[in-house]
Amino acid sequence: MAQKKLGTVHIAILGLGTVGGGVYKLIERQKENFEKKIGCQIAVKKILVRNIHKIRDGVDASLLTDNFDEIIRDDEIDVVVELMGGIHPAKEYVLKALAAGKQVVTANKDLIAAHGEEIFGAAAEKGLDFKFEAAVAGGIPVIAPLMKSLAGNDIEEIIGIVNGTTNFILTKMTAEGMEFADALAEATRLGYAEADPTADVEGYDAGRKCAILSTLAFHSWVTDKDVITEGITKITAADIHFAKEMGYVIKLLAIAREVEGEIISSVYPALIPQEHPLASVNDSFNAVFIRGDAVGDTMFYGRGAGELPTASAVMGDIMEVAVDMLMDACGRTGEVCYRKLPFKPQGEIANRFFLRMHVEDKPGVMAAIANVFGINNVSMKQLLQKSLGADEAELMIVTEKVKEKNFRNALRLLTEMEIIKGVSNVIRVHGLK
Amino acid sequence: MAQKKLGTVHIAILGLGTVGGGVYKLIERQKENFEKKIGCQIAVKKILVRNIHKIRDGVDASLLTDNFDEIIRDDEIDVVVELMGGIHPAKEYVLKALAAGKQVVTANKDLIAAHGEEIFGAAAEKGLDFKFEAAVAGGIPVIAPLMKSLAGNDIEEIIGIVNGTTNFILTKMTAEGMEFADALAEATRLGYAEADPTADVEGYDAGRKCAILSTLAFHSWVTDKDVITEGITKITAADIHFAKEMGYVIKLLAIAREVEGEIISSVYPALIPQEHPLASVNDSFNAVFIRGDAVGDTMFYGRGAGELPTASAVMGDIMEVAVDMLMDACGRTGEVCYRKLPFKPQGEIANRFFLRMHVEDKPGVMAAIANVFGINNVSMKQLLQKSLGADEAELMIVTEKVKEKNFRNALRLLTEMEIIKGVSNVIRVHGLK
Q1: B313/B404 same-domain check
Q2: Which CATH number goes with the domain that contains B410?
Q3: Which CATH number goes with the domain that contains A179?
Q4: Rounded to whole angstroms, how far apart are CA atoms A103 and A92?
Q5: ipTM of the complex
Q6: CA B92 vs CA A383, B98, B223: distances in Å
Q7: How many CB atoms lie within 10 A of CB A181?
Q8: For residues A204 and A198, is the Cβ–Cβ distance under 8 A?
Q9: B277 touches chain A (CB under 8 A)
Q10: Both A241 and A280 in a single domain?
């Protein structure tokens, strides 16, 4: 079937912030190439903004509107590109666009993580495209590879560094021995962290991306509320220092795994071995590590945010939608979620743990700890003790894999012992063979 | 437009070697999921083999045929999956399949690198799918991301480690100080190198992949003959040792760049900084680093060969073709090559060079070398000298970027000087900021 002819695909952009502005720029930049690359032209017909009177350099002011209904009522507009972020009114706008028969492209992770099922359903019902490559890991192609190129795999595990702000902070802490608060201040100064950094440093942003990745990987709905989330605010320079001495770096990881028919979907800081491909993903870069039963280990690396990197992902989606329209083949996604898997209870999840404690430095201490570990099925893999003088020491242990409930039991017993002066931190360990 | 109903997509597999066997296995493994993932079933109807009497475990013998015409004449066969490798008769079979209106999926890099234009043209003319994700970097999704997800970018540069055999050999040499011949013997023993390793160690295999990547990146036909290829046979343990002392590792790179409207497409061993994302791609792993004008730096990492990793890529393509058929949307590629760019002459290409020389260790030597460099516009970036005793020394220089012809001029003058006892090696340097 030869390609049908179509003149121009008209789009409306909702929001002209960093990403919206980037998409507008990229469309201008690629204008000459669309016809050859995809067989039709792409043109911006309208841009929804709050204030149509604000001067915006390089943007045709006649495109601006502050009235969403104008976009919905414009039959020439084929594609709505939602780049406002947040849940409301983005959700209402996306659903209205779909109801009006318009294809939708979005970068909105919050929206998909919270209301993916409803929105995917609305798009499928209408046979419309709903694309969101930019919602996870910004410019890095990871959604399309996961949904299409790797479709012949059962996905076993995804481990992602999907938040640039926290990766920048941890990189600073690692490279310069900074404490969290100082690294955060530096990130804020350089514009990597927002005025209110909560969503980043508490892991909520990464949690939303983890929900989306989990959903697509395991074909079972996972929302942001299902993701167990722990941030990096309790990570100290000392944790990073001692982890390094034991051969690890600390990264904020989004973890999606299917184990025995149950889903694990979590975000937390973790130790990974220095030679792991994710260990050298530094600064504000993102990377997503995907293990499939056929392909084995793969990794996708690049910029997870920023004007043009994110716009690159949105642009790829818009061009795909245009080709789908050209071929009259929109709504070509299969069933996104055809399974309904339970979540593995936290206590039943087996992980390795890094435990850092302040202990008395005297004979018998190790025997006492080993005893508590033994009765709780905790085995030690690595141990490092540093004398602090005055008969006290800092003790670092990396355990073998153990169910979290067993480890927590052991930990509770340890904290009750007089020889243990204090537990400095407990961090999970990933990526060991 | 709701999805049309289609029962089963029937495929024929040409060749039941490693990859063909892997695809057969994966189809069996995913049988339960196809309907849900893509809305139809996929079934193997015929398998072309040389010897239909050979016993093949787990393969339904009634599917085997040694007669390609049986496949062509079978109207129920929708997709021909060519996994024989080599140019003949693969080329004739692929063209006949397209002529008969069958979609084609292949993993055949040799074929595309040599005859891409003819085959893409035949597929486009018939409005058929022609997919080849497995042809470059095996299981790693890189063709689809490059052609689709990154379509909104002008691609500036691709640097790939796309040959697992040579990467295994160089990793061995680096980790264990082995010489090339010993590492090759080890690779052969472990099955990483073929009995005749020429295509791998001389860089021809990587060259074919480089041709394909260059074509897709710059939208201008590049064949394997256009790629300037240099293998790793002249790399010594000493090169690797001294490169390491200066902060680099040596990798066989496929380089595709567009500079001032001209294409550079080459394969050669090169030094890259130890902190470059490609530097930690070890053993038989592959990785492709892509820089786009919007997305910036991205990297795709994974297994470049092997039964199931390669089958994973082929499977992704087959499933895409099935969805295209379901939507009556085959042949949806735009114009692959809508430009016709010249190649930059080798002498005009600016690179950094690593130069290792055996020199006399006496006053005035450096001045003489610096003088030759100066009159040829070669600047030094890094220098390392190691005394060899007896008034001789090993001198390692990394230059700043310089046109190859200028560097070669300088090199010719240096070799004529008495103070230079011999040039041990010249290796290009990549990935420095």
Answers
A1: no
A2: 3.30.70.260
A3: 3.30.360.10
A4: 15
A5: 0.95
A6: 63, 10, 18
A7: 10
A8: yes
A9: yes
A10: yes
Confidence of residue A217 (pLDDT cuts 50, 70, 90): very high
Same-domain status, A295 and A319: no
* Interface with A, mutate which of B295, B301, B332, B339 (most A CBs under 10 A): B295
> B300 vs A300: CB contact, 8 Å cut-off?
yes
- pLDDT tier at B6 (50, 70, 90 boundaries)? low
Q: Are residues B196 and B316 in the same domain?
A: no
Domain with B394 in it: 346-429
B312 CB within 8 Å of a chain A CB: yes
Q: What is the pLDDT of residue A264?
A: 98
How high is the pLDDT of residue A346? 96
Q: Out of A38, A154, A302, whose CB is closest to B295?
A: A302
Q: Among A32, A40, A31, which Cα is nearest to A5's?
A: A40
List the one residue out of A295, A270, A317 whose CA is nearest residue A431.
Answer: A270
A304-358 pLDDT tens trace? 999 999 999 999 999 999 999 999 999 976 788 999 999 999 999 999 999 999 9
Provide the pLDDT confidence category of residue A6 given band limits of 50, 70 and 90.
low
The amino acid occupying position A252 is L
Pair A160, A296 in one domain: yes
Measured between beta carbons, which residues in chain A are less than 8 angstroms from residue B311? Answer: 152, 294
Contacts of B296 in chain A (CB under 8 A): 139, 302-303, 306, 308-309
User: Once rounded to an integer, what is the mean pLDDT over residues B353-365?
Assistant: 94
The residue annotated as part of the active site, out of B102, B131, B172, B209, is B209
Please, which residues have CB within 8 angstroms of residue B390's CB and are 6 or more apart in sequence?
A: none
To the query of whether residue B102 is one of the catalytic residues in this protein, the response is no
Beta bridge partners of residue A64, listed in sequence order = A47
Domain assignment present for residue B1? The answer is no
Counting the structural domains of chain A, the total is 3
Are B175 and B297 part of one and the same domain? yes
> Is residue A339 within 8 Å of B180, Cβ to Cβ?
no
Q: Are B291 and B160 found together in one domain?
A: yes
The string of pLDDT tens digits covering residues B376-394 is 999 999 999 999 988 999 9
Catalytic residue (choose from A172, A209, A344, A403): A209
Q: A102, A174, A298, A323: which to substitute to probe chain B, counting the most B Cβ within 10 Å?
A: A298
Residues of B in contact with A324 (CB under 8 A): 329
Do A425 and A314 belong to one domain? no
Q: Is A122 on the interface with B (CB under 8 A)?
A: no
